[in-house]
């Protein structure tokens, strides 16, 4: 039969990155396209040990149904972890464990957005977030990025427009794709605008723990005395992504709706993941583990930047203080799509920058490079491919 | 701040069953309310063994990101399993692994239903399904249940109405809550109506493997030569629910939309669960394991029915051929809500039947009893509590 797809899903396309990754069965292809954490950063031995213990000592507890909000002991361990530097979980907040932080974007939109409503987003930003929002028929309004985060003048304009946005989506730490970090001053200003105009902030912080240089900046959520901020963080980058585990912190009243949304979607999060997470948080030195990951990423990022400076001086980029990505800018006169295509022909995948724009048809000289996944040898080969393509296109 | 909840989620209430279960910290409470599989049915030793092997031999494969559709080897194993008796996965179908079968109900509604659209449902039926549908603003139209499944005259009326339903939701095997099984003739007739009126069928089959008596009836999906049927099945009842794993089979064109919905929701399903499932399906005798589960449930169901017949002859019920539930009918003159309340006061939880109705305010003499979770000793105690309450109310 011919299915009639709903208005909200009609015309939706799969994520370009996931499609690129699916075609990557070619083992010779070097990928700067993904956003996978470095596999050597996984605490695999600890996970194996805790998994064996849990399945030996409490199999029913791991294998039976659990509650939607999350396994109580795991929630408590995550609450302590979230609050170890700054007060992220306030007295009036609740914390839920979810099946990856994408699910938070899904549920927040489900609970706050009617079809046709406006959602304000950093532009460019994480394209998976755009997908989640658009799956509910949200209309995205982009706010430009400056070196130290979102453009405040533009943001106030968007917040004061009629209709006003249902929420503002931002990634303050090592933003995907630009790698930029929102300054402390700007976080305060963004929060104040949120309060002034009554627009909630959806603060997505998947990379916050991955700082490789500079000083930590407290999450916007830590400034939140009014309950305006919905905070999303993930264990994908500091434990592992295959276990699909993330957490959301927000005002208790909103949390009630998010819990119902989760009941209606996947009932509860995989229990094995939650229990492993609780073990890792309470029985290992997570901060030491995080420092080890940082060291891996610091080396890879610096290696990639050094090679880029050396071999591709035409490519500009802002040195990120953390995260997983470099956001390259090609000189005028080099066609970005053609550059990406020629890289792929030489077996290097990068992501065309327009994929991260609210309006993909806008002119764009940017492309995204990931430094967390490739080996150093492949970083070198990849940069050499880019250099060769640039030389070829510069002629 | 005061959050403005979306129209679709405003007024939604949490599942009454989950709320009952959350309050069940009282260890003395006997629950006939849940729908948990018997913990002694979990293949815990095999899961522990396979988990250890996988985390030893292929930690990165288990812990890294994977693809939205599901781990290829797991999908293939599930496809074979699904087709071992009847052809469920047709040439023009695709199969996706999801985080529990509730997620299928979520994504199908997301992809097929606009706000205000009608979804036809068996009435009564699984209340979690009603929740998923209503989270998208669907308007539910109930179709009455007869002994051998849905009322065909009513169903045709609903299918031929204007507007016609976006899909028809049914649980042909050991329906939740009624325990009834749709006859082969009725399955054929329902499928023919689906084709005649162009209304897709969402066939939910979480209990299909749990037959305790009678002869198997092939899924509606096995009759499907037009692609009208979306088939949902779960590993929660034959492996374990904590791992949140289910699968959906449907026409390839629709599957494209479901995959995008999943990308925008939880990206992909927990990899550990998928890999464990593939091991269980390919390296253990699943049919033997399923026969063991059936034997556990057969004994418990028969024990509960025998005690009910003996101690509570006033309660009528249809003997189910499988599943997890008995659907009790109280005699006229016994107020059902009062009965449920008095049982709870004596520390027995059952679910009031109106919770499963499209319109909860309708008069209802039914209540649901689960026989898979309680021990035999607790089944006896629980039935005795019901007998005492009935004696008290009969006065």
Topology:
The structure is a homodimer.
Chain A: H1 16-22, E1 30-31, H2 44-57, H3 59-63, H4 72-82, E2 93-98, H5 102-112, E3 118-123, H6 127-134, E4 139-146, E5 149-150, H7 152-160, E6 168-170, H8 184-197, E7 201-204, E8 229-234, E9 246-251, H9 252-263, H10 271-283, H11 286-311, E10 325-329, H12 336-345, E11 348-349, E12 351-352, E13 366-370, H13 376-394
Parallel strand pairs in A: 1-11, 3-4, 3-6, 6-7, 7-8
Antiparallel strand pairs in A: 2-9, 4-5, 8-9, 10-13, 12-13
Labels describing this entry:
homodimer; 395 residues; alpha/beta; Aspartate Aminotransferase, domain 2; 13 helices; 13 strands; 40% helix
- For the CA atoms, what is the radius of gyration of chain A? 21 Å
Strand content of chain A: 5-15%
CATH class of the largest domain in chain A reads Alpha Beta
Number of domains of chain A: 2
Q: What would the principal axes of the Cα set say about the shape of chain A?
A: globular
Topology of chain A as a string of helices (H) and strands (E): HEHHHEHEHEEHEHEEEHHHEHEEEH
Mean pLDDT of chain A: 96
Helix content of chain A: 40-55%
- If you consult CATH, what is the topology of the largest domain in chain A? Aspartate Aminotransferase, domain 2
Please identify which CATH superfamily of the largest domain in chain A we are dealing with. Answer: Type I PLP-dependent aspartate aminotransferase-like (Major domain)
Largest sheet composition of chain A = 8 strands, mixed
């Amino acid at each position: 039969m011919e299915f009639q797809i709903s208005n909200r899903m009609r015309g939706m396309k799969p994520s370009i990155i996931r499609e690129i990754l699916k075609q990557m069965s070619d083992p010779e292809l070097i990928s700067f396209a993904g956003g996978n954490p470095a596999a050597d950063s996984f605490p695999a031995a600890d996970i194996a040990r805790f998994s064996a213990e849990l399945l030996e000592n409490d199999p029913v507890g791991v294998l039976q149904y659990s509650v939607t909000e999350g396994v109580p002991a795991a929630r408590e361990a995550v609450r302590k972890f979230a609050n170890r530097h700054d007060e992220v979980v306030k007295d009036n907040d609740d914390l839920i464990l979810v099946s990856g932080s994408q699910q938070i974007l899904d549920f927040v939109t489900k609970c706050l957005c009617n079809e046709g409503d406006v959602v304000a987003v950093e532009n460019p930003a994480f394209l998976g977030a755009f997908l989640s929002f658009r799956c509910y028929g949200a209309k995205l309004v982009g706010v430009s990025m400056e070196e130290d985060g979102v453009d405040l003048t533009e943001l106030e304009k968007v917040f004061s427009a009629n209709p006003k946005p249902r929420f503002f989506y931002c990634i303050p730490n090592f933003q995907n794709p630009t790698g930029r970090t929102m300054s402390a001053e700007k976080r305060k200003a963004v929060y104040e605008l949120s309060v002034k105009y009554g627009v909630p902030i959806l603060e997505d912080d998947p990379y916050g723990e991955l700082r490789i240089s500079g000083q930590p900046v407290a999450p916007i959520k830590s400034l939140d005395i009014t309950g305006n901020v919905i905070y999303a963080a993930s264990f994908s980058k500091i434990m592992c992504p295959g276990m699909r585990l993330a957490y959301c912190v927000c005002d208790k009243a909103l949390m009630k709706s998010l819990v119902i949304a989760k009941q209606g979607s996947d009932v509860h999060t995989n229990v094995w993941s939650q229990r492993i997470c609780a073990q890792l948080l309470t029985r290992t030195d997570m901060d030491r583990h995080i420092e080890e990951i940082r060291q891996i990423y610091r080396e890879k990022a610096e290696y990639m930047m050094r090679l880029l400076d050396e071999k591709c001086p035409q490519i500009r980029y802002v040195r990120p203080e953390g995260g997983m990505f470099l956001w390259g800018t090609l000189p005028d006169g080099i066609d970005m799509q053609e550059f990406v295509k020629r890289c792929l022909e030489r077996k290097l995948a990068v992501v065309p920058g327009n994929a991260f724009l609210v309006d993909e048809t806008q002119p764009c000289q940017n492309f995204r490079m990931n430094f967390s996944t490739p080996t150093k040898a492949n970083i070198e080969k990849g940069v050499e491919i880019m250099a060769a393509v640039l030389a070829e296109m510069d002629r």
